[in-house]
């Protein structure tokens, strides 16, 4: 029987702290996870875009997933990213993650050549069939050569253990189209490209995004306000947080989040080469934005 996960709330996409010798920086990774759990996040997602999954070896991916499961220790669910260009490899990764004790899978099709819709659907069905775990399907039209179309998403909503979708487009209208088509069959999560409060308003259940690593408590507070229908207060906080999302659009995502965590004292290191670390100008801009978010936190009606 497929285990159940309460898919809702704020799920930070974790960075992957990798030392120069290729090993995971376990101590700082554990510190970050403890910090996020203490802030009230609803789950943890290693091996997403923020986690630089495309730059990690299979051994590094498994080490990151295992470390997340170990530190979380059942306090919040862990859903690990699986991404491959072949169906066989994606299924192998999914089974390996299940063996490590993750609670669910986020599945990505990492296509090089374009793939027809029927084959896209077959890929995600195969990953879901490979494990007795709930699966989140991921779509990102900005980066994927084989995106999940609305019709493909509708077909996959009928797969029993595909329980949610994360949409990383910038099109909130697309999210509403998904919601209209899948009804209660899939829960819909936003990414940092969307305005989280707007997604909650139209029927989304939360967001899976790297920026929540930097502002976990504020992100959880925003979710709580939206879930309670306190929209005026939610939008006050949303406007305060939005410059953080804007700066991520300006600079490289993993570099920006790792740079911000370094500013906060988490020695997670730089992105893996050939990616460049956050520039001095980027660090200065990000530091100012974080300071503005965190100053006068009791103003504007977003803390109780």
- Which architecture per CATH? Alpha-Beta Barrel
How many β-strands, per DSSP? 7
What overall form do the CA principal axes indicate? globular
Rg on CA atoms, Å: 18 Å
What is the helical fraction, as a range of percent?
Answer: 40-55%
Identify the strand order in the major beta sheet. 1-7-6-5-4-3-2
**What is the count of structural domains?**
1
- Could you name the CATH homologous superfamily? Aldolase class I
Number of helices: 11
Main sheet? 7 strands, parallel
SSE-based structural type: alpha/beta
Summarize the structure.
The protein is of the alpha/beta class. The protein is built from 11 helices and 7 strands.
Secondary-structure blueprint:
Layout: E1 9-12, H1 26-38, H2 58-72, E2 79-84, H3 87-100, E3 104-109, H4 117-130, E4 135-139, H5 150-156, E5 162-167, H6 172-182, E6 187-190, H7 196-202, E7 206-209, H8 216-227, H9 231-250, H10 253-263, H11 280-294
Parallel strand pairs: 1-7, 2-3, 3-4, 4-5, 5-6, 6-7
Descriptive tags:
alpha/beta; disordered C terminus; 11 helices; TIM Barrel
Plain-language structure description:
This protein has 304 residues and is α/β, with parallel strands linked by helices. It has one domain: Alpha-Beta Barrel (TIM Barrel). The protein is built from 11 helices and 7 strands. It has a 7-stranded parallel beta sheet with strand order 1-7-6-5-4-3-2, with helices on one face. Helix 6 (172-182) links the parallel strand 5 (162-167) and strand 6. Helix 1 crosses helix 2 and helix 7 (196-202) packs parallel to helix 8 (216-227). The longest helix has 20 residues, at 231-250. The radius of gyration is 18 Å and the shape is globular. Mean pLDDT is 93; it is low at 298-304.
